[in-house]
Design goal:
167 residues, mainly alpha, 0% strand
């Protein structure tokens, strides 16, 4: 397993895609899959914002506006995640609609982050620094996972805090 922060973030992005496929599958255990997705999404975003984004802002070749936009998109993702989690009937049309809104928001974010921030980081940030950021990212992400960050009440808190921050 690579310690490069770019590779670690990309690994999470691919896991999000797998979980979205599972959530679209009506025969899957949707509440369990949603719980795993919620925990990973929140832990991933909070670790990026705490450890990765601040470090990348120090590199003049990495666009600060893109980094800020990434944080705004995390807030949008948290809002969409919360909207989905608040619907208890995973067989309802409303649940399906909210799932697609979450998938759309996250796919948009992942695509932009990979094309801008992560490509720039791979090109501009030295290997050793990316490895250190990877270690920091994993530790922060695991801390959040250990705190059960995907719990509905925590997602509500995170969604409110991130929304308040960008308003």
């Amino acid at each position: 397993m690579s310690a490069d922060v770019v590779d670690l973030i990309l690994d999470d992005h691919r896991r999000f895609e797998e979980l979205f496929r599972d959530l679209r599958d009506r025969s899957s255990d949707r509440p369990a899959v949603l719980g795993e997705l919620a925990a990973l999404l929140v832990a991933h975003a909070e670790a990026e914002e705490a450890k990765v984004y601040p470090a990348l802002r120090r590199y003049k070749e990495i666009d600060d506006d893109e980094v800020e936009h990434g944080a705004e998109e995390h807030a949008e993702g948290h809002q969409a995640l919360l909207a989905l989690m608040e619907i208890s009937d995973t067989t309802s049309d409303e649940w399906e609609e909210k799932l697609e809104e979450l998938v759309e928001a996250m796919n948009h974010h992942v695509d932009e982050e990979e094309r801008t921030i992560l490509n720039d980081a791979r090109e501009q940030v030295p290997d050793e620094r990316r490895a250190q950021l990877g270690t920091d990212f994993l530790a922060a992400r695991q801390e959040k996972l250990d705190e059960d960050c995907g719990d509905l009440e925590n997602v509500r808190r995170v969604a409110k805090a991130t929304q308040d921050r960008i308003d």
